[in-house]
Design a protein that fits this description.
Strand content: 15-25%
Structural class: alpha+beta
Order of helices and strands: HHHEEEEHHEEHHHEE
Strand order of the largest sheet: 2-3-4-6-5
Radius of gyration: 35 Å
Number of strands: 8
Number of helices: 8
Length: 273
């Protein structure tokens, strides 16, 4: 310490004044906040990522006290009934405020969100209807309803909605919703809306998707079921008895046709179709 004091005194004598002030300490550079990775679009996500994302929303709903798979819901109108009921009624921009509260249910085929407004295309077994959600209107019954609608819903989900009927400025019949309910949360999205499900082998392997996204296929199945039930009723009325014959036999049949052979594991038997 004595040596240091002596050196300091010599330095003052040489400079002819006080010792120079220490240089100001440099300020540490401010740390820039790390940029959050951009949220992936569904088209860029793998099947596992999509499933994980949607199941995360299921858990978020349960944490908030909402049930993502409702036990019951009672719609009082279908899309086709509303279309017939309001045919030729309501001018563009007009709302039917005197009607009873309308309740519909169906699958979300498309969703468009614009700030405090959202428009969904809902499909039931009879057709499609547009839903309009307004943040201010939904808040009358539930403060967080619009926020949850944007956070929890995706295309493919089945939801219910209640409200009144109006026509948009473009003249499209729309349910102006007052509330909505999640009925079934979809774990995976629907096929691309522009290209659809066009691969024949995929359509046969995924008949449930084929029926959802292709109305013509759904109409064919509907007509086939109606024709079969109509023939059955006619034959029943004439006294015919319906019986079931076995499909698999132990002895080949079909005249000269080559039989289809198979093996029944449980019964340990060789069988033919």
């Amino acid at each position: 310490v004595a040596e240091l004091l002596a050196l300091k005194a010599k330095l003052v004598d040489l400079t002819g004044g006080e010792a120079p002030a220490p240089a100001p300490a440099k300020k540490a550079p401010k740390k820039r906040p790390k940029k959050q990775p951009a949220k992936k679009d569904e088209s860029e996500m793998s099947v596992n990522e999509l499933r994980e994302s949607r199941l995360g929303k299921v858990q978020a709903m349960r944490d908030a006290g909402a049930e993502p798979y409702a036990y019951v819901y009672d719609p009082n109108r279908t899309a086709s009934q509303l279309s017939k009921e309001y045919e030729g009624r309501l001018e563009p921009g007009q709302e039917d405020e005197e009607c009873e509260e309308i309740a519909v249910a169906g699958r979300i085929m498309a969703r468009r969100v614009f700030g405090k407004l959202a428009f969904y295309t809902l499909q039931d077994e009879t057709g499609t209807i547009q839903l309009q959600f307004d943040k201010k209107r939904l808040r009358e019954r539930d403060e967080d309803s619009f926020k949850n609608l944007k956070a929890w819903t995706d295309t493919g989900d089945i939801i219910g909605a209640k409200g009144t009927i109006r026509r948009t400025d473009k003249g499209e019949l729309t349910l102006y919703a007052k509330e909505w309910t999640m009925l079934t949360k979809s774990a995976l999205p629907l096929p691309d809306k522009y290209h659809g499900l066009t691969d024949i082998s995929k359509r046969y392997r995924n008949r449930h998707l084929d029926l959802i996204v292709n109305p013509s296929v759904r109409e064919t199945f509907y007509k086939r079921a109606k024709i079969t039930s109509s023939l059955r009723r006619q034959l029943d009325a004439k006294g015919f008895l319906e019986i079931e014959t076995p499909v698999l036999h132990t002895q080949p049949g079909g005249a000269e046709a080559k039989p289809f052979e198979t093996y029944h594991n449980s019964m340990d038997m060789e069988l033919t179709l």
